[in-house]
Write a structure and sequence with these properties.
The chain is an alpha/beta fold. The chain has six helices and eight strands.
Length: 202
């Protein structure tokens, strides 16, 4: 009997968002696989569905708690953060990376109230660096960060953000240091996803 297809990965494959090649991740690591969330989240039905699923996971962690704000790192977390906030009845804000300092910052008049309950959401977690930065920003503003979440966890569940964490799909995807990348040694050109077109995996 054939096992049922995974609904999360099926959505990625059906929308051409599951990519194979030679990619440089936001973390700086190289990988032969990439989940381009923008390609699946361009479809509102998938974005809304993923947002509802993540909101449900957050409610399981704190079923009686009123979450006031969902914060996401731009650009990848914008759509899914907004959909999670919609489902939770919370505000949706985002951080941006400052070009000069390369640090995440809150702009556009976004404010966090002291003791406001917050969660952090992004599309894909590999090392957790972006989520950690957002958590730090919220805590510095006096918010209470109770959890973090993502559509995809590429770390195999290994990332520790110092708060409970949820993901719709946890994967153990191969990733290499740029100094020890067999794809580089083979002469395969590295692509930073979003920088130019890539081909979907079969």
């Amino acid at each position: 009997m054939t096992a049922p297809a995974d609904p999360i990965l099926s959505a990625f494959r059906d929308t051409g968002a599951y990519l194979r090649g030679h990619f440089r991740l936001t973390s700086g690591l190289h990988s032969p696989e990439y989940l381009q969330c923008a390609l699946v989240l361009q479809h509102p039905r998938h974005a809304e569905h993923f947002g509802r699923l993540l909101a449900t996971e957050f409610r399981r962690l704190e079923p009686t708690l009123n979450i006031g704000v969902v914060a996401a790192p731009a650009i990848g977390g914008l759509i899914i953060g907004h959909e999670v906030a919609r489902s939770l009845g919370a505000r949706s804000i985002f951080t941006e990376r400052d070009a000069a300092s390369e640090k995440m910052v809150l702009r556009r008049g976004f404010l966090v109230e002291p003791n406001e309950t917050a969660v952090v959401v992004e599309d894909v977690v590999t090392t957790g660096g972006s989520s950690r930065e957002v958590i730090e920003i919220l805590r510095d503003a006096g918010a209470r960060v109770i959890a973090a979440g993502s559509i995809i966890d590429r770390s195999g569940g290994a990332v520790d953000l110092g708060v409970p964490r949820v993901a719709l799909k946890t994967l153990e995807v191969v990733a290499y240091s740029p100094d020890d990348c067999p794809l580089c040694r083979a002469g395969s050109p590295v692509i930073k996803p979003g920088s130019r077109p890539v081909h979907a995996a079969n």
